[in-house]
Amino acid sequence: AIPLVASISTSISAQNGLLIRNRTAFESSRKISTIVFDKTGTLTKGSHEITRIVSLHSDYTETELLTYAAAVESPSEHHIAKGLARKAKEDKLDIPSVTDFKYTAGVGVNGKVNGKEVHAGGNMLLEKMNETVDKDEKEGVETKVFTFVEGELIGFITFADEIRESSFDAIKTLHDHNIKASLLTGDNEIVAKDVADKLGLDDYMAEVLPDQKLEKIKELQAQDEFVAMVGDGVNDAPALAQADVGIAIGSGTDVAAETADIVLMDSDPKDIVNLILFGKATYQKMV
Ligand code: ADP
Ligand code: MG
What we know:
The protein has 287 residues and is an alpha/beta fold. The chain has helices at residues 2-16, 23-27, 39-43, 62-73, 79-90, 123-128, 135-138, 165-176, 189-199, 210-222, 237-242, 254-259, 269-284; strands at 18-20, 34-38, 49-55, 98-104, 108-113, 116-121, 143-149, 152-160, 180-184, 203-205, 227-231, 245-249, 262-264. Magnesium ion is lined by residues 38, 40-41, 231-233, 236.
């Protein structure tokens, strides 16, 4: 049976841009009871269109805020960075270069722009910088990026992302097969809850750091769940390694791909589900 199975999975590999790095893990996919999804770029499109640019500092206009944010984000591969770059180009802005760029997983980025230290990131950065903003400034189903210059909060930019059409079907199919689906995201609580509610997920956790993603997988395993994790980012790598079946997707980072058992070239959640069901059907009989 092995050569046949090997040839089948090799041929779907060729068709679907699929790389099985750990065959044993793939063969165990029949046991999966829970799939944990990363949100951004997995269940959602990662489209990140800018919806608002809000200056909170009298010395900085909205254009300057956008310029600093786009500059410090320019080396980043995150959807947020791509959204900023698109908008800056549209507005024909001159974006200065950044030096000493650093990315902190789950928090954001920082670097020197025009000789000034600039930070950009979400709620976790806000906490780290000991800043708060008014509750209604924080509310709304949006991903927010706060920007700091020389340690001072100068404003924030909001992004809208869309749930992929195929995510709805994918989650429904999993439920039909008695597989639970949950969400682990570094994004804020409001966005996470919105996606979880709309897709009817069994569970979600927001504002999680990479080690917390890992801990959550361990927790599920301790509850006798056989866990698949799907992710694309640097912040997903520890969790992908811990999961019983780690699946890296799409345009994701190399770090994610190198830790995963399975790599899928495109990021369609439906393909992930089909792959798992294929694994289930194929290896069911082989125990
Ligand atoms: P997830 O894929 O789990 O949703 P992300 O990789 O998007 O997590 O990162 C989680 C959070 O960290 C983001 O929602 C954002 O607040 C912050 N973050 C990550 N990368 C950046 C970046 N390049 N610029 C600003 N914030 C970032
Ligand atoms: Mg991600």
